[in-house]
Amino acid sequence: MTAATLNTSKPRWSAASGSNRTRSLWLAGLFVLLALFVFLSVTVGTRDVAWADVAAALGGAQDTIGRAAVALRIPRTLLALIAGGALGLAGAIMQGVTRNPLADPGILGVNMGASLAVVVGVAWFGMSSVYAYIWTAIVGAGCAAIFVYAIGSLGRGGATPLKLALAGAATSVAFASLVIAIVLPRGDIAGGIHSWQIGGVGGATYERLVPVLPFLLAGFAISLLSARKLNSLALGDELAAGLGENVAVARAVASLGAILLCGGTTAVCGPIVFLGLVVPHVCRLVVGVDHRWLLPFSALGGACLLLAADVLGRIVARPAEIDVGIVTALIGAPFFIWIVRRQRVRDL
Prior knowledge:
mainly alpha; transport; globular; transmembrane helix; ABC transporter involved in vitamin B12 uptake, BtuC; Iron ABC transporter permease; membrane; cell membrane
């Protein structure tokens, strides 16, 4: 019996070890892909820049047009890197908290809640401070998340994935209508608000990026530390509670991390949709459902996708540009339809 036990346990250990090795290889490959997109983001644009100009710009030189272009692209690249990672991670957190395959900061109305709060602050209270933008967006994102979850919890069966998706979609439409109603009579702010509403990373500066970093870093830390709790929640509330997990606290802490990420990103970039839906699904196909692997993969995958979307938006419309919010929507909408068909509505 001892020999049999040893013989049956060894393959399991080997399979787990092999799986972790495979995930590590995928992770290394993702880092290489991220480095490639960072390089393309710095060098590709309306003007092609040589590597010598890139190196000179990194050294602080701005005495040629090429070097000046690179100097402008570096903060843009950093913003796309951080915002993409934040949205990818927030999407994975929301899918884990709600156990909803359709969860996404855009679909659940969280981004639009942050957007509405910022628009109200600008139009009615003359808000102009960067920190005011950030705090207002975070509060708006949190209120929208609570509102959607409360609406989705009404009725028989509680907060089912389908009810949450429908409540989030309805909330997003309602908030978008309110934004239009607020901005329409305000011609003095309409242009800037409409441009910001599309969602993009163009025009990024260090002055815009630095104030939001503490909020995003806190969101990253809280979210990544919630991985084990999300694994427990995936087993179901009753089983998670039986394992000693405080279900309400686990959900609240993980949600706080996602809200910080969504609110901070929306304040700087505007609402960027579908990225938080696409990335976790693709990463789940690669690394499985273990959130200890899924969360970092989603963050890196989100950064890669947003950088790639930004580079693509610069190429396809030269000498003009297409904002990343439009590119991610064009990618995400068909993916959303595929998920709905794959999951089947009655199973959600």
